[in-house]
TrEMBL record, chains A, B:
InterPro entries reported for this sequence: 1_2-HQD/HQD, Catechol_dOase_N, Intradiol_dOase_C, Intradiol_dOase_core, Intradiol_RC_Dioxygenase
Transmembrane segments: none
Family: Belongs to the intradiol ring-cleavage dioxygenase family.
Domain Catechol dioxygenase N-terminal: 38-111
Any one Gene Ontology molecular-function term assigned to this protein's record: ferric iron binding
Protein name: Putative dioxygenase
Organism superkingdom: Eukaryota
Alphabetically ordered keywords of this record: Dioxygenase, Iron, Metal-binding, Oxidoreductase
Record-annotated Intradiol ring-cleavage dioxygenases domain positions: 121-299
GO biological process: catechol-containing compound metabolic process
Length: 302, 302
């Protein structure tokens, strides 16, 4: 039957040949990309289209189910602004941010130079944290339920184990109410964040608070999804840090309190065993109840 | 090394064991779903998470690339409203709507009853199109560049080939400027749409216009994506129709003009060969230059 003189609509007209679904459909969509498509974008979109189509066929996704997903995405966009990224959070609760973090770090660690390395920052990093003096605190108006901690250690060359001087450590953490300073009018500017530079001995040290678990914002589509998946919104207690030194690969990571709840079921799946640390009792320091010794090894870029 | 007394951050700490990336990560995310998750949702999300993660690993998706996607999704939501669904359009240009249409239709055609069938309507369907008399026109204030067409045919039982009386045909199409009446202040309410019911002979017939190609809205993220993929935004000329009759499976489809541009590269991938029809010269009818004879076979539900 010619395709150009078909004058009858038959019941099977929206069905297709060989397989359960049209076996050529996906390659048809992929081949629509024109010759001027950027090669990397072509690679990414080819894989994305293939996996999205395979997903739809694998679960026999219906129009109603797909439209529910579209609605969720549109509402995520509508509630996003400079202070909130609900699209990102939707990705986070299905583990995508944590996965691309891993991928990006791995890519960077395999690169011969540091230029291609991408910083993995999370939504609450600020570029303008103040440089503080070694031994100072990052906690101001410290809440009564906070356990003050002295965090310290040595930054070393991963190969030689020699101390690295003038390495910059950028630290940020949420307060005991689960909020970062830019989310919380009651915290002063730059509370619980700061930069420190190591001395000749590679040592760093400052006062902070023991981190506490907190929920990701759950009043939007990401929270709805968590609810439908019978999951809680909490993240285990963690501290963010970036360590930078010219000639070394930068490190961006989070460290997790070994005694925290939710280590095994972080709502955004960022915990790795090697990043779990133990807070110890601190002796002879009236300013801190706890201490955390944490050494940092940097890999040279050449 | 125990996971709870690790006090050194080493360069390989965000890398993982066996494979290039953590081989257990995806199953960890999937297993986070709680016991109260709806079984169908669990099936859908398990497949979605697996395919999204496989996609990210397959192309080594970076944080920057992922964030560009998040930004596109957030902006799609922000420009969506009651008259525009940019999230849907983003799906359309990667073929997802057309694919879930096919899946839903196939599911419905395999169902033993009509109750589970889902209507595939597209964004411009209206439930309240007026019932018109057989032989009337759906085109008012017909533009000068329109080619008036008499569309007609017989609705038959797919098995017996006997005429089906009182079948309802719901038709809608865009004007020659590419706009449906609800997108265009210059078209009167319900222009180029209407419902018709077949008589005893199963026949239907009405005047409409030959459809013309038009672009999907390309001033948002979907248009950006089309541009980056070196693709045009045009859809080939088509007419939408739904045919409903108690005791038969409803049909929702689009038919395409065989002489239209873009048949081989519909921007939303809805063309199927069997839905391509040929408009012919009409003789002896001063009201129409063209005619389209189109018979419709309905499958009984029992």
């Amino acid at each position: 039957m010619s395709s150009t003189n078909k004058h009858t609509l038959e019941p099977e007209d929206t069905l297709n040949g060989a397989g359960r679904y049209d076996p050529n459909f996906t390659s048809h969509v992929i081949s629509a990309m024109g010759p001027k498509t950027d090669p990397r974008l072509r690679k990414v979109m080819t894989s994305l289209i293939r996996h999205v189509h395979d997903f739809a066929r694998e679960v026999d996704l219906t129009v109603d189910e797909w439209m529910a997903g579209v609605d969720m995405i549109n509402r995520a966009g509508q509630m996003s602004n400079n202070r909130r990224n609900e699209g990102q959070l939707l990705c986070d609760v299905i583990g995508l941010e944590s996965l691309v973090d891993e991928i990006t770090f791995k890519q960077a660690s395999e690169a011969k130079d540091a230029v291609t390395q991408s910083a993995i920052l999370g939504p609450f990093f600020r570029h303008d944290a103040p440089l503080r003096q070694m031994g100072e605190t990052i906690s101001f108006d410290t809440p009564a339920d906070a356990e003050v901690t002295y965090m310290h250690g040595v930054v070393m060359d991963a190969t030689t184990k020699l101390p690295v001087e003038n390495a910059e450590i950028d630290i940020w953490q949420a307060s005991t109410n689960g909020l970062y300073e830019q989310q919380d009018d009651k915290q002063q500017e730059h509370n619980l964040r700061g930069k420190f530079r190591t001395g000749k001995d590679g040592e760093y040290g400052f006062y902070c608070i023991r981190p506490t678990p907190y929920p990701v914002p759950d009043d939007g589509p990401a929270g709805e999804l968590l609810g439908m998946l019978d999951r809680h919104p909490f993240r285990p207690a963690h501290i963010h840090l970036i360590v930078i030194k010219q000639g070394y690969k930068p490190i961006t990571t989070q460290i997790f309190d070994a005694d925290s709840k939710y280590l095994d079921n972080d709502s955004v799946f960022a915990v790795k065993d090697s990043l779990v640390v133990k807070f110890e009792e601190r002796q002879g320091d009236e300013k801190a109840k706890l201490e955390l010794k944490y050494d940092i090894l940097l890999a040279a870029t050449e």
